[in-house]
Structure formats: C-alpha cells, structure tokens
Design a protein that fits this description.
Length: 437
C-alpha cells in the first residue's frame, strides 16, 4: 500500500463533485457577522476558487451586526418583533449605509484574493444591482414593521444574464418597490427566494454555528424536509435556527436540490461541503422517503433477496441466514418509501483502527441514482465516529467505482490479520482498496 496520500486521495474524491457542480447554480447567504477580517478574506478566497471551477455563484450578504453597530453608536437600541427588525427611518439609513460598505468590502476581498491566486489572468467580475423587488412587511400583530420588507420578486433573467457572463452575482439585503420606496430585507428571505426562482442546485447558509443543533447542542448532519418540519412543530429549534429550517424546507419543497447550513467561521467548511463526501454542517434534503438506517432482523428476507443473485454471480461473498442473523447489527439498509433498495455492512476487526466496507449492494432497478454513494457516505461517517482510520473494501467487479471515489489500491499485506487469512484461503483474488479516514 502506498503511504496515505492526503492530496491525491482528496483530489480523487473531489473530482466527481467538481464535474457535477460545473455549470450549476449555488445561492450562498452569508451572515453579516462573518463579513469582516480573516473570515471575510478566507470566504472570498474560497468563493473565487469555486467560481473558477465553473460554478455559478449568487452571493447574498447579511448586515444585521453592522446595522446594530451603527445604531448603537448613535445610542439607539435595535427593535425586533418576532425576531424581525423593526425598521424606522433612522434604521433604514443604517441599513443602506451598511449595505454599501459591505458590498464594497466584499468586492475588495474578492479582488484581493484573486490577486493572490496564480490561476487566472483576469479577475472574476462581481455584478450587483436591483435584482430584488420588495414589498412592505406591514403591520404584524399590531406592530408596524416600518421599512422592513419582504421579497416580492427576483429578476431571474437579469441574474442569469450576469451568471452567463461569468460574473459572481452579489445581492444586498435592500429592495425597492415600483413606487421607489426602499425596504430593509433579510438575507435569509432573499437567499431562499433567489434559490427557488433560479432553481438552484444548492442553497447554502453560512452562519456562526456549526449548523442545526439538537437539544443537547450536537450537530445534526442530515435532515429530511419531513424531519425538519417535525422539529419545528415540536419547537425543538432555537428561534434563529427555526427560521433557517423554514427557509431550508421551503427551498427544497420548491425545487432546490438541497439546503446546507454551515459554520462560516470554520475555515474551509464551504469547500468541504461542496467537494468531499463527508460534507459539513447540516444538510436538509427534499426527499422525505429515502433514508439509511440500522438493519433489523425483520430486514433479513429483503437483504437476502437483494444479495443472493450477486452471490451467485461471484460478486459478493456468500452469507448464510445464520451469518446475517448473528451480524445484523453491523448492517445498514437504504429504504425508499419503506421498500429496501440497498444494504452495506461495516465489518470490524481486532485492530480497532481498521474496518471493512462489506456487502454493498443496490437493487438493480435503483442503480445509478446515487444510492451507492449515499451508502458509502453513511459507512464512512459511521467509521469516523468509531475512530477508524482505514476503511478497506474488497471487490471482484467494482474496483473502478471505489477508485473514482478516492479509494487507493492496497495489497493483502495491508489487511488486518484475520481478513488477510480469509482473503488468501477464499481464493477469490478480489482487488483490495483502502480509504484513509
Ligand atoms: N464499476 C464502476 N462503476 C460502476 C460500477 C462498477 N461495478 N457500478 C456502477 N458504476 C457507476 C455507474 O455507471 C454510475 O456512473 P455514472 O453514470 O454516474 O458515471 C455510478 O457508478 C453510479 O453511482 P451510484 O452512487 O448511483 O451507485 P449505485 O449504482 O447506486 O451503486 C454499486 C453502486 C456498485 C453499489 C451498485 O452498482 C451495485 O450494487 N453493484 C452490484 C454489487 C457490487 O458490485 N457491489 C460492490 C461490492 S464491493 C464484497 C462483499 O461481499 O463484502 C466482496 C468481498 C470479496 O472478498 O470479494 C463488497 C464491497 O461488498 N465486497
């Protein structure tokens, strides 16, 4: 086995994601608090890099913390109703001022990160403009929200034109009405509306927490729209997190592929989310019915009918019913609409740092739809949680599939002792792959 090579492995893992995202539109909403100092410089560098790979970027910036600072400098206390800012005349001026300063700072950061990167002869241009029209929020429960507005419409044609020209589109949280009035909008609203209007591949929110947290403060990595709705119904999310969940659910319910909520202070989180299997933060997906879960004894008949034909073709090892009954705890199954479409097992060894991805199968009628990739991600996440450092896979037919996903070729000598014995005695001559975690 070659020594684990972080760069080569990482590059191989990233390549399919780079190909997939080229030409796709991402809408990225960034909290105002991240848009200064080192976080802004790092984000600008990452945005430049992503745009240079041919990904179409629409960036929406927030301005909450900047508006608060301007108001507080004048001795004013920001007023909120139901978590929304009440915008009076003075606050509207702060909002305009903050938007102008932020736009200029972001442009400067994008420009300077370009200047430090060797890859281009010409900076990626930044297009801003009146892409968003607004309407007043009005009076809520007797409280006049003043110049706080809602998104009326996104000018998708204008945005698409700028994206076609190769620009990064930058949208400020300010909108105008046809009668020429200006309203203070929320970054979250605009990003959601733009993602839906543009039918974006992903809507991403960069915030100051790791993502959506459970009641014990632990990161929830995956939520279906249905699970997110349940969390909101049971008031299990803090108010600001609940708002993000609502945006996420609305967006995926209206055609956006996925919503991702990430920590923008975590250096490289955006790159990890887009170009690694592990991803980052919380992912909210539209499909409420596809899920991977721990297998139960009741699943054994369905697992057997999935794997028997593959065993007969010599693709999978033979596993008796007794074996499955004894080892069902190491199996996970993928189900769609309560039908089983895939399975995988994590086999552990005496060496606690090594494990094997085994018995991976996706039903023939569901192949090439990403289920194999989902099962692989599930098992690498599970292995990481168990502090496993090397994930092996042995295969007679699917070597390319693993190589394309960042696995490296290995030899029998690299396998844990007990697996090496079985491999040699079994005489299957399977190819051996390893994925360093
Ligand atoms: N080789 C290369 N590419 C393949 C491929 C293959 N055999 N099968 C599918 N692909 C490509 C598709 O063409 C598609 O490419 P595209 O169109 O996107 O460019 C892409 O992969 C689809 O990716 P996906 O994420 O949608 O994948 P799924 O189709 O959902 O699932 C499986 C991929 C390989 C899991 C699926 O095709 C399948 O179930 N195949 C039959 C079973 C199989 O080969 N499983 C791999 C087992 S290796 C054994 C054991 O029993 O433990 C043997 C151990 C031993 O000692 O030999 C394992 C691990 O279970 N080992």
């Amino acid at each position: 086995m070659n020594p684990p090579d972080g760069f080569v492995g990482g590059f191989r893992e990233a390549a399919p994601y780079i190909n997939h995202l080229r030409g796709k539109t991402l809408v990225i909403g960034i909290a105002g608090s991240l848009l200064q100092g080192p976080p802004l410089r790092r984000l600008a560098a990452d945005l430049n890099l992503i745009a240079s790979l041919g990904v179409r970027l629409v960036v929406v910036h927030g301005s909450r913390s900047q508006i608060n600072r301007l108001a507080q400098a004048d001795g004013l206390t920001p007023q909120y109703h139901q978590g929304r800012r009440i915008t009076d005349e003075a606050t509207l001026q702060y909002a305009k001022q903050a938007a102008g300063i932020l736009r200029s700072d972001i442009e400067a950061a994008l420009y300077s990160s370009f200047a430090q990167s060797p890859q281009r002869s010409k900076p990626i241009s930044v297009a801003s403009g009146n892409f968003i029209s607004a309407k007043p929020m009005g009076v809520i429960d007797g409280t006049d929200m003043g110049y706080t507005g809602l998104v009326r419409k996104t000018d998708t044609e204008a945005v698409r034109q700028r994206l076609d020209d190769g620009a990064i589109v930058l949208i400020s949280p300010i909108g105008h009405t046809l009668s020429g009035k200006t309203f203070n909008l929320s970054m979250g609203d605009i990003a959601e509306a733009a993602a839906v209007a543009l039918q974006a591949e992903k809507l991403i929110y960069l915030i100051e927490q790791d993502g959506i947290l459970d009641s014990d403060g632990r990161l929830i990595t995956n939520l279906s729209a249905e699970e997110a709705r349940r969390m909101m119904a049971k008031n299990q999310a803090a108010p600001r997190q609940e708002r993000l969940l609502r945006y996420a659910v609305n967006a995926v319910g209206h055609g956006v592929g996925r919503t991702q909520i990430l920590n923008g202070n975590d250096d490289g989180s955006l790159i990890r989310e887009l170009f690694t299997r592990h991803g980052a933060g919380t992912s909210v997906a539209r499909d409420a019915f596809v899920r991977i879960r721990q297998a139960h004894h009741d699943d054994i008949p369905a697992i057997m009918s999935l794997i028997r034909p593959l065993e007969e073709q010599g693709i999978l090892l033979r596993r008796s019913r007794e074996y499955l009954e004894d080892h069902i705890g190491s199996f996970s199954v993928l189900e769609h609409d309560r039908c089983l479409y895939g399975c995988v097992a994590l086999k552990t060894f005496a060496d606690p740092q090594s494990a094997e991805l085994a018995c991976l199968a996706v039903s023939p009628d569901a192949q090439a739809g990403g289920y194999g990739e989902m099962l692989l991600k599930h098992i690498t996440d599970q292995a990481r949680r168990k502090n496993i450092r090397r994930l092996f896979a042995l295969s007679t037919h699917a070597g390319e599939w693993f190589a394309e996903r960042g696995f490296q070729t290995a030899s029998a000598d690299d396998l844990p002792e007990e697996r090496r014995r079985d491999h040699v005695e079994g005489g299957r001559n399977s190819k051996i792959f390893v994925y360093p975690l």
